Amino acid sequence: MTEIRIPRVLLADDEPHIRLLLKKALTMMNYTVVGEAKNGIEAIELFGKEKPDMLLMDINMPLKTGTEALKEIVAEFPDALVIMLTSVSDLSIVEKCLEDGASNYIRKDTPLAEMKKLIEESWLGCLGGLQ
Fold it and tell me: How far is CA 124 from the centre of its chain?
């Protein structure tokens, strides 16, 4: 019998209400939120400490942007599953994140049901690559 592994997720966003929304959505999906970062520096530190299965990270954050944090995390953890969160409509920034190692991106104005679907697809895609 195959053991079902509950994904451990780190949230990184400077907006507390976004972190709360994501935490509730992930809890409903039976994921475990192992930490919350409010800037890019905290995201890097918490990722190294917690080694989560997945990181949902805002692109625009203080102290260190999500794009800067992404580069550092992927350099140290090449297999990191990072989903970028964005409220910007500039696709060139999103494309750069995908080139730099992000697995996917989610616009913050995405309806919750669609957001959950994108997270689940990213997680299952990661699992498929591990088998």
Answer: 14
User: What is the C-alpha to C-alpha distance for residues 49 and 72, in angstroms, rounded to an integer?
Assistant: 14
Identity of residue 37: A
Q: In sequence order, what DSSP letters do the residues of 43-101 get, joined into one string? A: HHHHHHHH--SEEEEESS-SSS-HHHHHHHHHHH-TT--EEEEE----HHHHHHHHHTT
pTM of the predicted structure, to 2 decimals: 0.90
Query: CA-based angle 90:93:97, to the nearest 5?
Result: 145
Domain membership of residue 131 (yes or no) is no
**CATH number, residue 70:** 3.40.50.2300
What confidence tens digit (pLDDT) does each residue in 84-112 have? 998 866 778 888 888 888 999 988 888 88
Starting at the edge strand that comes first in sequence, how are the strands of the sheet with 32-37 ordered? 32-37, 8-12, 54-58, 82-86, 104-107
Assess if residue 32 is contained within a domain.
Answer: yes
Residue type, 45: E
